[in-house]
Amino acid sequence: MLRIPYPDLESAFLKAILHLGVPPDRAPLCARLYAETDLDGVRTHGLARFPRFSAMIRNGNIVPTATPTLTSGFGAIERWNGHLGPGNLNAHAAMARAIELARANGIGAVALANTNHWMRGGSYGWQAATQGLFGICWTNTLANTPAWGTAKPTIGNNPIILAIPRSEAPVVLDMATTQFSMGSLSSYVQRKAQLPVPGGYDAQGNLTTDPAAIEASQRTLPIGFWKGSGLSLTLDMFAAMLSGGNSTHQLPLDPLKESGLSQFFLAIDPTNFADPAQLSQIAESILTDLHAAPPIDGTRPPRYPGEETLRLREENLAQGVPVDETLWQKLNNLTI
Amino acid sequence: MLRIPYPDLESAFLKAILHLGVPPDRAPLCARLYAETDLDGVRTHGLARFPRFSAMIRNGNIVPTATPTLTSGFGAIERWNGHLGPGNLNAHAAMARAIELARANGIGAVALANTNHWMRGGSYGWQAATQGLFGICWTNTLANTPAWGTAKPTIGNNPIILAIPRSEAPVVLDMATTQFSMGSLSSYVQRKAQLPVPGGYDAQGNLTTDPAAIEASQRTLPIGFWKGSGLSLTLDMFAAMLSGGNSTHQLPLDPLKESGLSQFFLAIDPTNFADPAQLSQIAESILTDLHAAPPIDGTRPPRYPGEETLRLREENLAQGVPVDETLWQKLNNLTI
Question: Between A and B, how many CB-CB pairs are < 8 A?
Fold first, then answer.
């Protein structure tokens, strides 16, 4: 593992992204979203995901020049078509539009069809919260999880993000509806580590903490068993129906062809109906109460979602961003 | 267990609710919401909860005559104050207002402060979906669940509802963010049954399927371990901050004093930006795919959230609604 100065990482991403055909006016944001993902310590969805991004541009499933367009809208909600453009750029544009709608209407939403993997979903929660808005968004995915009651992958693990603005640092929950995201599972496999809690079933149908057995059986576990299964199904229905786009069962099972996703973005601007001092007081009182709870393990006190992000960001800005050496070389050689 | 004709159940609720001081113009809706909960088979939150409702009117924590008022608003989102009125009436009014806002703006939301337990959260999902709208709502609760990393109950199990309109029958997810709601846990205890999956920790800190051990330790398990813990915390922050009301840690730990909750209601009216035939086609294709998945147990095919509701409703309309005999007598004697 290398540590690379953040500006070098962002500029290496930029060169590679330009090389892949993303236009110069849009490539810098795409590069920043990738680089910030590693900067914030979400290593499963930054450079580690870039080979798939470049492969999908080469195989035509991501159209590097495409930009989203408005399909229809009414009041504070709109449907957009991502035209299979880069997923992080489409998602950023969709949340940006939801924020505009929220500024004008208190609340705003965008349902986005025909888009691609948004990489780190938390990016769009941070996008809303750092501008003072509450944000919620989710995406569907290819069928990677058996619905409750079947062993066949039929539902996605449809990550959902909830973001809360806060003066010090936003609270950002970014979670797949399975116990472990596919990226996280494969990271455990690579490290030859066991999962801390059961993450799915083995081929014999027993709950297991062996990530390789779960990758082999394809029986990942929804959070809360039947509950996460139902949550995932309903998130897919919301995203596909509101956007008019594909649902999970219509997406190819090959991750290199997982294109044409449906997503939903919601923003709430409290400026015109709430007192900022009151909002801040409520947020701080909740987090103070959380932090005051006695930890089971003294070294691991209760934390709020995203609490580690700023610390990791500062550490990585100071010491360099950890990257895989092989991928870093490929990124710089434009052979990724 | 008795089976009572539905109209008799609703009228018995109505008499008891009038006796408790809910005004005649509002009591019928309150009674219908209670009776429909048992009718739809959600027995943990209908008649079984009524003794607590009446006790909380008697101890002053529910104000039977209170009606919600507008606190502030901007565009498509509003803050309301429930003035500690009956929780199901406040929640119904909040979702009704969110629906009005959504009809005018495509999307609408109400954040409700100072309210009471809404009983069956799914009621307000059905309310939106049967009128053709998508609905999302959630509530905070008293601290009944340890946040991840502590053994002390610090977060609520904050039920969340996602409802999708559909011509045949809506899809309605209604779930607590713990593996088992408190009502469900106590129902297992009463039946002296073990939980089908671990629902929390025993006093020694081991995961257990023994509901009594979990009630004793107060260590209920969030869905997905740390994930449900983060979800519950963020839902509380949204509800309390947007409504300007109480957060979980401010609510008394005595269930008979669990008053002054914060809730959030969102509705989306697709009429003016989506083609109804397309929406229906997408919904049916998702559910057809779900139902086509081979079941692990042939007698228990994969189901969508709420799928059993209409069947139970028809069965209970035809055969009478199952009620506990003792509670039924008390309801009729106005001694409940």
Answer: 250
Fold exhibited by the domain B66-178+223-273: Ribosomal Protein S8; Chain: A, domain 1 (3.30.1370)
B182-195 residue pLDDT tens = 888 988 999 999 99
B47-50, long-range: CB < 8 A, 24+ apart: B47/B9, B47/B13, B47/B323, B47/B324, B47/B327, B47/B328, B47/B331, B48/B183, B48/B187, B48/B324, B48/B327, B49/B117, B49/B119, B49/B183, B50/B13, B50/B16, B50/B327, B50/B331, B50/B336
Query: From CA B273, how far away is CA A73, in angstroms rounded?
Result: 5
Determine if the pTM surpasses 0.90.
Answer: yes
Put simply, whether B72 touches A (Cβ < 8 Å) is yes
Q: Is A182 helix (H, G, I), strand (E, B) or coil?
A: helix
Neighbours of B42 (CB within 10 A): 21
Alpha-carbon distance A165 to B238, whole Å?
A: 10
Residue written as token pair 């999970």: A248
* CATH fold label, A1-58+309-336: Hypothetical Oxidoreductase Yiak; Chain: A, domain 1 (1.10.1530)
Which residue is catalytic, options A19, A45, A83, A92? Answer: A45
Whether residue A9 contacts residue A17, with contact meaning beta carbons closer than 8 Å, is answered with no
* Distance to chain A for B46, nearest Cα, Å: 21
> Which CATH architecture group holds B180-221?
2-Layer Sandwich (3.30)
Helix (H) or strand (E) holding A131: none
pLDDT 10s digits, B251-306? 999 999 999 999 999 999 999 999 999 999 999 999 999 999 999 999 999 999 99
Predicted complex ipTM: 0.98
Chain B residues 242-281 with a CB less than 8 Å from chain A: 242, 244, 247-250, 266, 268, 270-275, 278-279
